[in-house]
Structures are given as C-alpha cells and as structure tokens.
C-alpha cells in the first residue's frame, strides 16, 4: 500500500490550546487507550475507503505509527507510514486533519476524564447522561442558538446500489427543506443521506449544513468516516453512542440495513414503549425504495410477533416517495419543537427522554453474556426489547468488531437461548438478512456468528 513516510500535523481548532496538565494527560495515556487511538486514527486516515474489515486495514498498514509531540501551547502529531490517500501533494486533507484531532479528543481526553476522579461519572444513569452531554458539547455538536432541525438517519452499510440511491434522494429532499443530518458516519445508508443533503443545501445556498458522524471505537475501526462528515464525535461505547443519537434527534429516519439496524430499532422502540416516555415526542419513519419494501415488511412482522401489535404505533412506514419522507420529517419536527417550547425544554439535547440504566450500561458480547440474554415472551415489551437489542448487539460485534470477531474465532459461535416463538421469529429475520447479504459486504463467504436454540418449554 502506498504511504507517506513521515509528516507532522497540528490541530486546526480542536485541541489547539491546552494546559500543561492536559498535555501531560495526553502524553501518559495507558497502552490500551493509545492502541485504540492508533486504530481509530488509521480509520480516519482511510476516509473514503469502503472496506469494512478492521483486521485487513490494520494488516495493510501494520507499520503505521502515530506519536503525540508536546509543545509549549499544545500538541502536534507525528504520522509515519500513513495512507497516501489522505494527502494531496504531500499535505494532509483539511477535513481528515480535523477528524484526526477529533479522534485524539474523544479517545485520549474522554478516557482521561472517565479514569480521573472528578471527571466523568459513568457509574450511574444521570452520570452517564451528563457524560454523553459533555462529550457532545466538547465536540461542538451540542450548540446554543441552533435551529432544531436535526434528522438522525440509521441504516446499513452493506446495502444495494438502489438502496443507497434511495437514501441519497431522501437526503436531498431533507436538504432542500433546510434539515441537517446525523448518521453513524460510515458508508451505505450513512453516507447516502449526507451526500444528498449536501446537494440540497447547496441548491438552497445553505452553506451551514451539518453532517454529524456519531460513532464509537469498535465501529470506526472497521467503518471509516465517509468524506461528507464535517462534525465527528466518538462516544466511548455503543450504549453511549445510541444515547447520543436519541438525545440529539428531532426526528429519526431508518433505512434498510442488517443486524446493526435491527439493534438500533430495538433500542429506540424499547425507549418509546416505556410508560415514562408516553408524552415524549420522537417521531420515527421507516423508509425504503419500492424494490426494498420487503425489508420493513419483514421487520414489522418481527416486531409485532415479539413486542406485540402495539409496537406499530411508534413508527410509520413509507415505501418510495422520498419527498413524502422529508415532508413527514418537517411536519413531525414542528410538533417536536412546539412540545419542547411548551415545556421549556432544550432544543439541542433531549433531557426529558427517560433511559433506564439497563440500557445505559455497556453490554460486552462475551459468550457468557450472550448465553444469559433473556429471550422470554413473558417479559414486558419494553424489557424484551432491551434483551433483543443485546442479542443483536452481540451479533453485530461478532460480524464487524475486532473483539467480537476474535471471540468467535477462539470459541466458536455465540449461543442464544429463548422460547420457541421468539427463536422462530429471530431465526426467520436473521435468515432473511443472511440470504440478502445484509450481514457483511462480503456476503459470499459469510458464516453466522450465532446459533439459536429454543428452550424445551416456554415460561
């Protein structure tokens, strides 16, 4: 692979003025944190590369090195053997340079605040919410005096060309209406809405468009940010990332995807079905092109079979008609704004949304934890959604995250157990994902990272 032998990079605005104590913290991060920083920095330097195999990227650039160099007013980075695609005429591309220091900020400094007494409190639900807010605020994502117009778009990275084009057209319609976009920052249904919105904003002479990428270390290492992202923030884990999405969102549009998209849907519905959130407005639209209508038909069938018919009250399905998706977003956004104005709530961060601590604690997809996931139809729907979300989170980890892939390589597939009704519904949905190549880009050699087993008797 072509590389740049060595270069020095200084921050543009993030981390461009630091105290001596902050410089010391950056220089003395532990080896594990710094390794995570190196992997995420390499992912950012691969912006525009659509490979989704973290191990392959790390192997191709095994001699890549990044070093923090202290200066009197701050720091700079020394890069060695960095991907040449990140440079133009020997100079690092400006957007990638900004993202590189976003990685440093969100990996090194956030972890220091978590580890240090008096930093972030991640031992309680309110503390976790406070940490999410402060990370987003420090990244400049939560801002005062911003119009409440953020549409969060979820969907898969491993999608067909027609599905990508549909998401791009929806993004274009959103951009024409002055709406900004937040996604998981990767390719596929994360890239399409941003790229479309950029064109829509340009046509409306809107040069303040926001294309916010929200990710976490295990995902960004295998899914580099797409080139459209102009605000990047890395949350410490998947649960804080999901909380960031729902607290920032004024409306959520979900496009077709795979297990990761199912995880996001289950997380969201688990919140909206709680009695504590009965009066909280967070509109959800499932949107697909005509040739992908079966995706949300399958998802709708799965959700009704597992969480009950009432679940369909929490989302609206739109097939085709991208303009209608954007119109619904704008109409729903006006409802959200009116509600928050009446209650004197923040437009920028949804503090009123209740998130149980069980949905805030990181779920580590070990074989032991996966085997203990309680897939029991007798659970209240909101609680069952939490358990189903954990199951799909583990499946995502086993597919694309370095930790999960290593677990599967060492110990074989995860074992999931539950009652026969749930297992049948999950098996049907997952088989659809596999048959349509929705698990990984390289679907031809896909091998499931899970095995489903029905209990001998339902509870």
Question: How would you briefly describe this protein structure?
Answer:
The chain has 459 residues and is α/β, with parallel strands linked by helices. The protein has helices at residues 20-27, 31-45, 54-60, 94-115, 125-138, 161-176, 191-203, 217-220, 238-248, 259-272, 293-307, 322-342, 367-371, 381-400, 402-411, 420-435; strands spanning 3-9, 65-70, 75-83, 87-88, 91-92, 150-154, 180-183, 211-215, 231-234, 251-254, 284-288, 316-319, 414-418, 450-454.
What keywords describe this structure?
alpha/beta; MCP/YpsA-like; 7-stranded parallel β-sheet; 14 strands; 15% strand
Describe this structure in words.
The chain has 16 helices and 14 strands. The chain is of the alpha/beta class. A seven-stranded parallel beta sheet has the order 9-8-7-6-10-11-12, with helices on both faces. It has a three-stranded antiparallel beta sheet with strand order 1-3-2, covered by helices on one side. It has a two-stranded antiparallel sheet with strand order 4-5. The mean pLDDT is 89. The protein has a domain at 3-119: 2-Layer Sandwich (MCP/YpsA-like).
Write the topology of this structure:
Layout: E1 3-9, H1 20-27, H2 31-45, H3 54-60, E2 65-70, E3 75-83, E4 87-88, E5 91-92, H4 94-115, H5 125-138, E6 150-154, H6 161-176, E7 180-183, H7 191-203, E8 211-215, H8 217-220, E9 231-234, H9 238-248, E10 251-254, H10 259-272, E11 284-288, H11 293-307, E12 316-319, H12 322-342, H13 367-371, H14 381-400, H15 402-411, E13 414-418, H16 420-435, E14 450-454
Parallel strand pairs: 6-7, 6-10, 7-8, 8-9, 10-11, 11-12, 13-14
Antiparallel strand pairs: 1-3, 2-3, 4-5
Helix pairs in contact: 2-4, 5-9, 6-7, 6-12, 10-14, 11-16, 14-15
């Amino acid at each position: 692979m072509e590389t740049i032998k060595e270069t020095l990079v200084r921050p543009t605005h993030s981390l461009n003025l630091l105290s001596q104590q902050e410089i010391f913290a950056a220089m003395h991060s532990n080896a594990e944190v710094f390794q995570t920083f190196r992997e995420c920095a390499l992912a950012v330097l691969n912006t525009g590369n659509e490979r989704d195999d973290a191990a392959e990227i790390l192997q191709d650039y095994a001699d890549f090195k990044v070093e923090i160099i202290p200066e009197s007013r701050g720091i700079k980075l020394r890069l060695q053997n960095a991907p040449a695609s990140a440079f133009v005429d020997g100079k690092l591309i400006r957007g990638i340079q900004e993202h590189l220091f976003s990685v440093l900020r969100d990996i090194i400094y956030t972890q220091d605040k978590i580890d240090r007494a008096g930093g972030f409190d991640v031992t309680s639900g309110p503390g976790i919410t406070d940490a999410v807010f402060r990370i987003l605020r420090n990244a400049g994502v939560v801002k005062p005096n911003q119009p409440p117009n953020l549409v969060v778009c979820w969907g898969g990275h491993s999608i067909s060309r027609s599905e990508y084009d549909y998401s791009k057209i929806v993004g274009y319609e959103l951009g024409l209406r002055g709406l900004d976009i937040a996604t998981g920052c990767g390719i596929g249904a994360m890239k399409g809405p941003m790229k479309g919105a950029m064109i829509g904003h340009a046509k409306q002479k809107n040069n303040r468009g926001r294309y916010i990428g929200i990710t976490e270390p295990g995902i960004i290492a295998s899914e580099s940010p797409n080139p459209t992202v102009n605000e990047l923030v890395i949350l410490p884990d998947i649960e804080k990332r999901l909380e960031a999405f729902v607290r920032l969102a004024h409306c959520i549009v979900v496009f077709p995807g795979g297990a990761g998209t199912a995880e996001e849907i289950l997380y969201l519905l688990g919140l909206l079905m709680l009695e504590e959130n009965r009066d909280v407005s967070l509109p959800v639209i499932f949107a697909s092109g005509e040739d992908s209508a079966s995706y949300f038909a399958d998802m709708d069938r799965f959700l009704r079979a597992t969480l009950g018919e009432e679940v369909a009250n929490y989302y609206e399905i739109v097939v085709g008609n991208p303009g209608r998706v954007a119109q619904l977003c704008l109409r729903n956004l006006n409802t959200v704004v009116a509600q928050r104005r009446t209650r004197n709530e923040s437009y920028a961060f949804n503090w009123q949304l209740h998130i149980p601590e069980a949905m805030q604690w990181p779920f580590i997809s070990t074989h032991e934890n996966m085997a203990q996931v309680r897939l029991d139809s007798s659970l209240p729907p909101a609680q069952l959604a939490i358990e189903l979300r954990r199951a799909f989170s583990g499946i995502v980890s086993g597919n694309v995250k370095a930790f999960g892939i290593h677990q599967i390589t060492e110990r074989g597939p995860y074992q999931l157990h539950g009652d026969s009704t749930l297992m049948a519904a999950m098996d049907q949905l997952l088989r659809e994902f596999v048959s349509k190549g929705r698990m990984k880009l390289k679907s031809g050699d896909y091998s499931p990272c899970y095995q489903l087993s029905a209990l001998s008797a339902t509870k």
